[in-house]
Amino acid sequence: MLPVVAIVGRPNVGKSSLFNRLVGKRHAIESVISGTTRDTVSHRVSFFDQQALLVDTGGLEITSDGDIEEDVQSQARAAIEGADLVIFVVDVRTDLTASDFHAADLLRKSGKACVMVANKCDHVSSLEEKTYNFYELGFGEPVAISAIHGTGLDKLKNNALDELGKLNLLSETDEKEVTEGIRISFVGRPNVGKSSLINALFGKAKVIVSDVPGTTRDAVETPFEFEDEQFVLIDTAGVRRRGKVEKGIEKYSVLRSLQAIEDSDICVLVIDGSDGVRAQDLHVVEFVLEQGTGLVVVVNKIDTFEDQDKMRHRFAGLLRKRMAFVPWAPVVFTSATKRTNVIPVLQVAADIYEKRHYEVDPKSLEFWLDETIEGHVPSGGRGVKRSEILKVEQTGVNPPVFTFKVRHPEKLHFSYVRYLENRIRESFGFDGTCIKINFKKAGRKRTAARKEKKKK
User: Fold this and answer.
1) 94-128: pLDDT as tens digits
2) Angle at which helices 67-82 and 249-262 pack, to 10 degrees?
3) How many domains is the chain partitioned into structurally?
4) Structural domain of residue 430, as residue ranges?
5) Burial zone of 305 (CB within 10 Å; 0-12 exposed, 13-18 middle, 19+ buried)
6) What DSSP string runs through 53-114?
7) From CA 83, how far away is CA 181, in angstroms rounded?
8) Where residue 453 falls among pLDDT bands split at 50, 70, 90?
9) What is the pTM of this model?
10) What is the CATH number of the domain that holds 224?
11) Share of the chain above pLDDT 90, in %
C-alpha cells in the first residue's frame, strides 16, 4: 500500500491550504476561522514519481472545550500514529505558541519521521527573522513555503522523498503494481465474510479470519491466477457507520478500505444473507459509484438457511427494492465456509473487466442514437426538439465514457439521462460496470450540419 503522509500542526497555520496545494484542487475546506477542519481528509498525491496518501488533520491544541474539539484532538493524534511521515506546519508570521511546542512534543514522543515547514513565507525575510525560534522545536531548519502562492513545494517534496527513502518506503514500480492484473476489492460491513470468501477462493487460509468484527485492519493484497487470468484480491477492513467507527486504528483501517476501492477495477460488495441489506451497504455502493468501478453483489452465508431457493428469491426481491439505483449489478449467492458458488465471483468479475474496456463501433453508436431519439424525443421544455442531441462518441474506457454533443444541454431533464444510460446498457451490454455520460454544448456549425443531414 501507499505510504501515509500526515499534515499536522496547531490550528490556522495553513494545513488545509498546503493539503489542497499538494493535491492540486480544493479538496479540504479552507477558512480563516480556527478549527475549521475537524475530520481527517485524505487524497492520493504524487511527490514527483512517488505516490502517497496525504492526510489533512484538525489542529493540535493544549486545551479543548466540548466533545467535538476532543474528537478533533483524538483524530489528529491518530493521524500521527497511523502515518509513515509527518509534515509539521508552523506559521512564520506569528511567534511560537504553547500549542506549537505541544505538537512538537507529541511528534518527538511518537518517533515518526518528520519534515517541518514554515508556511506563509511570502517574503524571504520572513523565515530569516524567525529561524532561531523554530530551532527551539527540535526539528532543525524548516522548509520555507507559501501554500497560497505555491512556493517552496519542490524542496518540501524532495525532503519528504528523502525521509521516505530512509524508511525504505519508496517504490519505483508503484504504477505497475497498481495496474497488474484485475484488481478486485472485497468490501462491506464487518464480519460479513470478506476474508473467508478470499480464503475459499484460494482453498486455504491466506488472510486471518475471526468471528470478532474488525479483525482485518489493513487492506491486504494477494495475487491470484485463475484460468490463465491474473487477479489481485484485496481484503479490506469492514466499513461501519461513521458514528460507530472507533478512533485510532479503525479510523485508518476504513481509510485504507476506501483507498482500495479507489484503486480497484471491480468491487465485490459482500452482504450477510442472514442480516439483510443495511444502510451502510448502500453507502458503500454510493462510494463505488463515485469512483466509477465495477460492482458485484455477493450474498454470503446462504448455508445458514434451510430453504435456500426461497431465501434467494426473497433476497433478490429485497435487492431490487433497496438497490434499485444499481439494477445492472450482478448478484452471486455464496457460502464461504462451505466453499459453495465462490468461483463464479471471479468469472463474473473477469466478464465485467472485459466490458469496462469494450469500445463500441462509432457507426453502431450513430445508428443507436437515431433509434434512441426516435423512440423517445427529449422533452425538457422551452423548445427542446429532436435535433437537440446531435452526436455521441465513446470518449473513454475503464469505465466506459460517452460524450453527447447537445445544442442546449441545460434543458435536458435528468430522467432523460437515465433513459440514455439504460438504452446504452440494453444495446451494448455494460452490465456490472459504471458508465459515465457527459454532455458538451454543440456549436452552430454542427447544428446546421445535423439539420442538413435530416433534410436529406
Assistant:
1) 888 888 888 888 888 888 999 999 988 876 555 56
2) 70
3) 3
4) 362-455
5) middle
6) EEEE-PPP-S---SHHHHHHHHHHHHHHHH-SEEEEEEETTS---HHHHHHHHHHHHHT-EE
7) 28
8) low
9) 0.58
10) 3.40.50.300
11) 27
